[in-house]
Amino acid sequence: MQDPIVNRVAASGLLTFNLEHHYPEGERVVLDIADGLFKGLVLKEKDFRSWVKDLKVEQFRNCHVAVCCSSDAIVPTWAYMLVTSHLSEIASTVVFGDLQTLETVLWEQALSRLDLSPYQAQKMVIKGCGDLDVGPAAYTAITRLLRPVASSIMYGEPCSTVPVFKKKS
Fold this sequence. Notes:
Blueprint: H1 8-11, E1 14-17, E2 28-32, H2 45-53, E3 64-68, H3 77-87, E4 93-96, H4 99-112, E5 123-127, H5 136-146, E6 152-157, E7 160-166
Parallel strand pairs: 1-5, 2-3, 3-4, 5-6
Antiparallel strand pairs: 6-7
Helix pairs in contact: 2-3, 4-5
């Protein structure tokens, strides 16, 4: 008589965490304020204020917006503040930076709301493959959050993992 087939992955006690289940929904948009500068290089306050006032803000409704300046202009801090103030009531999120910065902020916000108690002393596998391009910001954030509570953290799939962290006994 043959021994029964045992699913070692199921019996391992590993808890899989899928970042895709926490993906921050919403359209991502970049607003380049170089378009509001004189010749793309010089900020003239009156003209810039007029440009901000005339922005078609409806296009940013419920969007996550990254505000940046693609030119080498010297832009005073208040200019970014003015744009943020103008967009804050209509956009879901407004950050200074590029799309990568925006993704980092969105993942930090989404993951900071997690209840970590179910992961206390658990052997965690952070799922590595999926349908969405999750990116390193999310993996970095979840590792930072789980490290104090999990007994171990691995990356990949339960059948093939890469060890990332293990609590010392």
